[in-house]
Fold this sequence. Notes:
- By secondary structure, this protein is an alpha/beta fold.
- The protein has nine helices and six strands; from the N terminus they run βααααβαβαβαβαβα.
- It folds into two domains: 5-23 and 94-220, 3-Layer(aba) Sandwich (Rossmann fold); 27-90.
Amino acid sequence: MQPHFTENLDAMLFDFEGTLVSFEWKIPEAVEDVLNKLETMGFARTRIRSRKYSTLLLEAMQVAPEIGVRPEDVRDEICRIYDSYDLDALTRWNLRPGAKDFLNTLKKRGIRIGLVSNVGGKALTEALLKLGLEAVFDVVLSRNDVANLKPGPDGINLALHRMGVEKDRSIFAGDSLDDVHAARNAGLKVMIITNGENARQEILAALPDRVFDTYEELLRTM
């Protein structure tokens, strides 16, 4: 019998929304609010190609100097909008069934646990307190801690550095295509818990290393 994949791990990093908690963020509305704000700052809507919240921030900051706007000001305005959507989602977030049991099982096995999220620090801190997870993670990184959101590798790389663990002894757990790409960009294997941000068919097409539909299913394999 082959050993469970967690037996060869020193660390497991997690996404937050959609992975550990229900996916509640209103992405289309947030993107539209950001595009409207950028127009008031002098951006032509046609100049911004991204319609994904995760890549819209970086693209707008890169374009900003072309129209004489400071990238820092763009980031502040977009993050202010994202913060409001974080706090809205916070009112509805609930732990996915079995998630806390799985985290506790990892800790009992001596596996270090990190959190790397595109959610902002304020809502993330409040959520961890609300859900009783404030003491679970060895490192917690929000979008405020990195220059580039996932699918960029910045958060994963920073988390591994702070935890002092090697990539080949770690895995990233998420729910979205951004999570798959972030892990791949960082050189990590990736495990997906479905029924989050992206449809199961989209996830399977991206060929993650492991796929589970529920934490109960995952716990049964341990």
